[in-house]
Amino acid sequence: MKIYLEAGVGFQSGTDAYGNEITGSSNTELTVKYLQEYLNNQSDIRDRKTEVITTSNAATVLETMQPEDIFLTVHLNYYRQSQGVGLRGFYRSSRKLNSEKCKALAITVTKALHDHTDVYYHGVFNEQRNNKPQLEPILSTKATAALVEVGFNDDFKTKSQSEMLHKNLAEGLGKGLVRHINAIR
């Protein structure tokens, strides 16, 4: 099994599924880097000889992913209205390819991140709820896949560059991935 982690670029502008205005996104490469480090330090991951791969462009590796692999893409977006602030998970609902596993991954990872950070939890949705192009990677792979979005207020942009924030998000995501992997053993 391999775990693919994508530093998603998120929305540059537009609206989310609820009509909340997105004013930009943060680079998540630092979050994904810390997430990879966290996972590589977990005995549950090392003992299973699980390879953790990071990418900033999942399109280049989607074809190599297998159904037993896990693919997680992480997005940090900024909202003008406070209604957009919080956690959302998205998963593929297509019955062809392990949709129940995708839903379980999205739920487990977002709930673990919520427990770790106490950021407002909006829930988990399938691609039919938010059919944006940013969801394309989780729709195009055979792997068990989910997208996690963390929304911040627009005025939080400078604070969100903090290394501590990225480490905190990575640890919460990592706890969720480890829980998911232990549950599917």
Give a verbal description of the structure.
With 185 residues, this protein is of the alpha/beta class. The protein is built from five helices and eight strands. Strands 1, 2, 3, 4, 5, 6, 7 and 8 form an eight-stranded mixed β-sheet that branches. Helix 3 (99-117) links the parallel strand 6 and strand 7. Helix 1 (29-40) packs across helix 5 and helix 3 (99-117) packs across helix 5. The longest helix is centred in the last third of the chain and has 21 residues, at 163-183. The termini are close together.
Write a compact overview of the structure shown:
This protein is an alpha/beta fold and 185 residues long. The protein is built from 5 helices and 8 strands; from the N terminus they run E-E-E-H-H-E-E-E-H-E-H-E-H.
N-C termini distance: 11 Å
CATH topology grouping: Aminopeptidase
CATH class: Alpha Beta
What letter string, H or E per element, gives the SSE order? EEEHHEEEHEHEH
Rounded to an integer in angstroms, the radius of gyration calculated over CA atoms is: 15 Å
* Number of helical stretches of at least 4 residues: 5
Indicate the overall shape: globular
Summarize the biggest pleated sheet.
Answer: 8 strands, mixed
Could you give the topology of this structure?
Blueprint lengths: L1 E6 L6 E2 L5 E6 L2 H12 L2 H5 L3 E5 L14 E10 L6 E6 L7 H19 L3 E6 L9 H4 L4 E10 L9 H21 L2
Parallel strand pairs: 1-4, 1-5, 5-8, 6-7
Antiparallel strand pairs: 2-3, 3-5, 6-8
Helix pairs in contact: 1-5, 3-5
